[in-house]
Amino acid sequence: MTIARPFLMFQGGIAQAALDLYFATFPDSHMVRVERYAQGEPGPVGSIKVATFTLCGREFMCSDSP
Predict the structure, then answer these.
(1) CB 10 within 8 A of CB 51
(2) Contact status, residue 64 vs residue 19, Cβ threshold 8 Å
(3) How confident is the model over 16-47, as pLDDT tens digits?
């Protein structure tokens, strides 16, 4: 079965701050997996390349747009 996941894209390197706010606000929410930009990649080092997380038990994905 194919599952569609909403995907959020942030500008300005704020994905982690947004996730921190979501996790503090919504119950049953947590990070599932995160991959961060490394030195020499297009985004700022340490910003989120792609993350999978849950909010209220539903899975989402997000990234920081370089």
Answers:
(1) no
(2) no
(3) 999 999 999 998 999 999 999 999 999 999 99
Tokens 């297009």 -> residue:
42
Beta strands in 1-66 (DSSP E): 7-11, 30-36, 48-55, 58-65
Distance of alpha carbon 3 from alpha carbon 65, whole angstroms: 23
34: tokens are: 């995160």
**Residue 13 backbone phi and psi in degrees, to 5:** 70, 30
Backbone phi and psi for residue 49, each to the nearest 5 degrees, phi listed first = -75, -50
Give the global pTM: 0.88
